[in-house]
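[Q] Does anyone have a clean structure-token version of this?
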Amino acid sequence: MSSHIRILSPSGAIDPAYIDGAVARMRAWGYIVSEGAHARDRWGRFAGTDEDRLADLAEALQDPSVDMVLCTRGGYGMQRIIDRLPAVNKPVIGFSDITALHQLAGLHNQTSLHGIMCKHIATLPEDSEPVRLFRRALAGETLEYKLPAHPLNRFGDACAPIVGGNLSVLYGLQGTPYGLSKFSYQFPILLIEDIAERHYHIDRMIRNLRLSGVLAHLSGLIVGQFSDCEQDPSMGCSVYETIKEAVADYDYPVIFDAPFGHVERNLPLWEHGHASVHCGPDGVLLLNGLQV
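[A] Here you go.
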């Protein structure tokens, strides 16, 4: 029996053509695909009012016929409705602003997929790496990544669930019931990425995670892409070096320049499932699966 994917727009408004393309491609893969009533809406920068977006999400999460929820795009809007959502009881798919949903999923011990959304599903070539691996992830296959060495990497091994996503969203959730310190499991592997943030603001956000104790209670750190984040010479180092400095006191493995984030080569990762990392002088081996 084919899995049923419900497409929703819980955050920013999207060009409907990207929904059309994603629906056509996933149906060609054999999935049953449906849309939330407000997936194509526009209300200012949002895909419908808070109440409309909340209703679509709540309906999908409570519909037993829906197996997975695919978010059309990120943008902004999840933090306006996250406190009114029911339990996340099935995989949600997306990144960027959808990081907030990944956080909520983790609180309910539900795996979720950090990965491409409608634009890239619709427009990337069928044989492109993100699309091929996205299909494997949807099918429940274990993901295996062999990443090149980076001069800033810190060697080591870790075996723990992956959490996180967009650094700005994680920063905005600190001090709330959806922050990184609220999971039932300790010492996860943290993923961070971001787009169009000032260098000093990245420093501020990573220092917040340090001061609040988040960085001290990790098994590993995966530093993804910081796209369109201009290096600030007055900071005295690169953005990646700023992050390395913030975790200098800890001994867990740190992986830099990983292919996750606001880039075309945005590869899928299961959050809150099983992950193991080996980081050494020859590069990184990352194994990641759906099962907890």
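[Q] Thanks! Anything notable?
[A] Residues 16-28 form the longest helix (13 residues).
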